[in-house]
């Protein structure tokens, strides 16, 4: 299963670099990261953790 995500303002190359090789992640273009669907939790964790941390410190 292949899944892609488009999120403006997120460094998708940094996300791809943090994923294990088994995820077979690559950038299709500047706004689309393609990876194996079983790694969706990993991708969301990498992308959302900094956003959540920033929100918590701004409280």
Automatic annotation (TrEMBL):
Q: What are the GO MF terms of this UniProt record?
A: phosphoribulokinase activity
Swiss-Prot/TrEMBL keywords: Kinase, Transferase
Per the UniProt record, which EC number(s) apply here? Answer: 2.7.1.19
Q: What is the name listed in the Swiss-Prot or TrEMBL entry for this protein? A: Phosphoribulokinase
What broad taxonomic lineage does this protein's source fall under?
Answer: unclassified sequences, metagenomes, ecological metagenomes
């Amino acid at each position: 299963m292949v899944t892609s995500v488009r999120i403006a303002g997120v460094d998708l190359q940094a996300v791809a670099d943090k994923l294990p090789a088994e995820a077979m992640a690559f950038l299709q273009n500047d706004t689309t990261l393609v990876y194996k669907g079983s790694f969706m939790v990993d991708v969301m964790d990498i992308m959302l953790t900094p956003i959540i941390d920033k929100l918590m410190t701004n409280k």
